[in-house]
Design a protein that fits this description.
There is one protein chain. This protein is of the alpha+beta class. The protein has two domains: about 35 residues, no CATH class; about 150 residues, tt1808, chain A. Helices cover about 25% and strands about 30% of the residues. It is built from seven helices and 13 strands. The radius of gyration is 17 Å and the shape is globular. The mean pLDDT is about 90.
Length: about 200
């Protein structure tokens, strides 16, 4: 990640500036960072999960949004663009620019951003009182990791990793924050993983 300026930018300046830019920028600690492009596998995974979540959430009062939906941790940032989010908060349903109360955030991992998604970004997302689940989906090999807030207010990890091609159809991933489950294979349907990964 490369910041676009040498000097810290106030959050309101970032919001006004970014609205005029042709690409998206995330914002952390006074710095704006250009969003990098993902792979086709990354895109296909995000589309697959968004599609099934859209159908599942219809009529529930919850809403799924994709990569163009900005999440604000506070009014002054940080601001991120997760690959997928779900919010069940009425204030977010009426929001025009920024989602502030997601219950589920999903990032599809890219080699260039994986460390940031696992580390600092997750640390910032945990500041959201509404967040109950953070899912990381691998775009190079089949696998999903879900971090869930338990009843003791601690984040627990559940991994969904298939043992072979057949088990991807049998392995059910759960997104407990919204009561959703589906076969792991559905998330990877028609996704071309790299030959080395397979």
């Amino acid at each position: 990640m490369i910041a676009i300026s040498e000097h810290p930018m106030p959050a309101q300046d970032y919001l006004a500036w970014e609205a005029q830019q042709p690409i998206k920028y995330e914002y952390l600690n006074g710095e704006a960072y250009a969003m990098t492009g993902g792979t086709l596998a990354h895109n296909d995974i995000a589309v697959n999960l968004t599609t099934v979540l859209r159908t599942y959430l219809r009529g529930t009062g919850c809403k799924v949004r994709m990569a163009d939906a900005k999440v604000g941790i506070t009014e002054v940032g940080p601001f991120f663009y997760p690959d997928i989010l779900v919010t069940c908060n009425e204030r977010d349903r009426k929001a025009l620019k920024i989602v502030n109360h997601p219950c589920l955030v999903v990032e599809v991992l890219s080699p260039g951003t994986e460390a940031f998604d696992r580390g600092e970004k997750f640390r910032q997302y945990r500041r959201l009182d509404s967040l109950r689940e953070y899912a990381l989906i691998n775009a190079e090999t089949m696998g999903v990791e879900c971090y869930r807030l338990n009843e003791r207010n601690k984040w627990e990890l559940t991994s969904y990793l298939p043992e072979g091609k057949a088990s991807a159809d049998l392995l059910e991933i759960q997104l407990t924050s919204i009561g959703f489950e589906c076969p792991l294979s559905l998330i990877y349907e028609d996704v071309q993983l790299s030959p080395m990964a397979e």
